[in-house]
Write a structure and sequence with these properties.
The complex is a heterodimer of chains A (255) and B (331). Chain A is mainly α and 255 residues long. Chain A has helices at residues 3-19, 21-45, 53-83, 89-92, 98-128, 138-162, 168-181, 196-201, 206-218, 227-253. In chain A, 44% of the residues are buried. The two termini of chain B are 41 Å apart. The chains are: A mainly alpha (255), B alpha/beta (331).
Chain lengths: 255, 331
């Protein structure tokens, strides 16, 4: 690997992200925030929902915001740069093995997912009008955040190198929407116990482990998936998506 | 250090998947079309040479550039830039080459200056050097006044100039230009020709593809004519033009074409072919130009027709291509 080239490409992505920061923030954070306001504030203040729901909702919202922004940050540029503007070609011709360009995209997506997480936590806290957590595991929280950022960016790599430009809309309605709604983002996994088949099926959805992971770190006293299962699943999803994404990237880059 | 280019028996076949919804019985007999883009192409470009790949659309020119610039993996055969095998030592090759693509692929998220400075950064140039070179190139390519704009609103010619500036940014030893003059106005084309000559004068090797005869003729030291992925002819433009019999074309415009006038022209000494276009244009292919004119005049007037216009075309690469393939380059 050529470290200077790699860093220059990271610099380029950071430069572009800075330039589009406001747009990116609204794009990825507005929807989760609206959800937080309606369910975390309106529903709880009106008494329709238990105030404890706030603490169960926030971890899911962090997972959702991180996955959305990290995936978006990798997928959308890859789709347009590979197929439409071809602007990635300049970087494919830089003196570095092309796989490292895919890795660079993942690192840059992880950074953007982390940034989204960092923005969403205080904002959601404010919008909900305060949440109290007891017994938060800070170190576990950082580990989960890192794995979820990796998940979002590697998923972005797979989608960005597999989906045609004409299918972007379909991707959001057919892939992202079900993943979000069956990703235990708005409810804990334990809440699905009344639907035993669905409760098993959603386990193939990586977002489940992201949401449950943040729940296990922020509200450990509430029921959640076993910690070893969460971390194990996230590591496996990260690695599989990375390897598959690299393969798809190679196929796209070289004809 | 001057660097040459060599290919040996390059073959590239593309599998085209059938479009979605195409009729098929089983998945396994999905109709697949195989396109042979390169069919055993061997070339050698000398260090410091301006080399032209000439051929019609679909001849395999861009695929050849793709293979030599690490973007297309050949089905068979090998290619070298200098001493480096393109497929075993891709990173070393990428350091030596600069590429101007057929369609501009500029980074639309960056400004013109940033496109150059980031490109320099990818190649490890120090920051002060990047800025200096970027400004010099922007000035040279007359883009300084738009340096802080994004290329999204640039004209085709400006994008092309910026693409070339970017390819020169890391001062590569070998410059590839894929159809550099396609769609350019005459003024930009002139600037481009001058830039290519000036870059070559510094000892750099240049490979360009074109289907423009005049460009290949005036700019290239040597030209390879390719069609259907095969090498048809190779040499200096002058050598190539000398190699064809009947390389002259006398174009006559008459008041009306009749069988009599065509037959009379066909019967002339040294005429290999007579073709008519529309109702008044006759192309006479022959092995002589000026000396044929009196005979043409006699043949036409003795058939009772009147000459409106007459033009002699010297042997050209266009005629050469026609000679070898039976097709015009522009078809």
């Amino acid at each position: 690997m050529n470290f200077r080239t790699f860093m220059a490409m990271l610099g380029r992505d950071a430069h572009v992200a800075r330039r589009n920061a406001i747009q990116l923030t609204f794009q990825t954070l507005l929807q989760p925030m609206l959800f937080v306001f309606v369910f975390g504030r309106v529903m709880t203040a009106s008494g329709l929902m238990n105030a404890q729901y706030k603490a169960l909702l926030l971890p899911g919202i962090i997972a959702l915001a991180m996955v959305m922004s990290g995936t978006w940050a990798v997928t959308m540029p890859l789709i347009s740069e590979f197929q439409f503007t071809k602007e990635i070609e300049d970087r494919l011709l830089a003196p570095m093995n092309i796989e490292w360009l895919a890795v660079e995209k993942v690192v840059s997506g992880m950074a953007q997912a982390m940034a989204a997480g960092m923005v969403v936590i205080p904002t959601a806290w404010l919008v909900m009008g305060g949440v109290t957590f007891a017994g938060t595991h800070m170190l576990l929280f950082v580990l989960i955040a890192f794995l979820v950022a990796g998940l979002s960016a590697t998923l972005g790599l797979v989608l960005g190198c597999s989906i045609g430009q004409q299918h972007v809309g379909l991707m959001f309605s057919m892939v992202m929407a079900p993943m979000i709604f069956f990703g235990c983002t708005y409810y804990p996994w334990a809440a699905l116990s009344k639907f035993p088949i669905l409760q098993r099926v959603v386990l193939i959805n990586p977002i489940v482990y992201a949401s449950e992971g943040f729940r296990s770190a922020l509200v450990p006293q509430s029921p959640h998936l076993a910690l070893y299962a969460i971390i194990g699943a996230l590591v496996v999803f990260d690695s599989v998506f990375l390897l598959f994404g690299l393969r798809q990237f190679r196929r796209k880059a070289i004809s | 250090m001057q660097v040459g280019i060599r290919t040996e028996g390059l073959v590239k076949e593309f599998q085209l998947a059938a479009p979605m919804g195409a009729p098929r019985k089983k998945k396994s007999d999905a109709p697949k079309a195989k396109v042979v883009a390169l069919d055993g192409l061997s070339l050698e470009v000398k260090p410091g040479e301006i080399f032209g790949l000439l051929g019609p659309n679909g001849a395999g020119k861009s695929t050849t550039v793709g293979v030599l610039t690490t973007r297309v993996r050949p089905t068979a055969g090998r290619a070298w830039i200098g001493e480096h095998d393109v497929w075993q030592n891709g990173v070393a090759v990428k350091r030596l080459i600069g590429v101007v693509p057929q369609r501009p692929n500029l980074d639309f998220m960056l400004t013109a200056r940033e496109i150059l400075t980031f490109h320099g950064a990818y190649f490890g140039l120090p920051s002060a050097e990047r800025r200096k070179r970027a400004d010099a190139l922007l000035d040279e390519f007359k883009l300084l006044d738009r340096a802080n704009d994004r290329p999204i609103g640039f004209s085709g010619g400006m994008m092309q100039r910026l693409s070339i500036a970017r390819a020169m940014m890391h001062d590569p030893e070998v410059l590839f230009l894929d159809e550099p003059s396609a769609g350019l106005d005459p003024q930009t084309r002139l600037l481009l020709t001058e830039m290519i000559r000036r870059y070559n004068a510094r000892g750099k090797t240049i490979l360009l593809t074109t289907h423009n005869m005049e460009e290949a003729d005036s700019l290239c030291h040597r030209v390879a004519i390719v069609d259907h992925g095969k090498l048809i002819a190779l040499g200096t433009p002058a050598e190539l033009k000398r190699s064809i019999p009947g390389g002259y074309v006398v174009r006559v415009q008459v008041d009306e074409i009749t069988d009599a006038v065509v037959n009379a022209l066909r019967a002339l000494d040294g005429v290999s072919e007579v073709r008519t276009t529309g109702t008044a244009l006759i192309d006479v292919y022959a092995d002589r130009g000026g000396t044929l004119v009196p005979d043409v005049v006699t043949a036409v007037t003795s058939s009772g027709r009147v000459i409106r216009d007459l033009h002699i075309a010297e042997p050209s690469l266009e005629n050469l291509f026609l000679h070898h393939t039976g097709r015009s380059l522009r078809e």
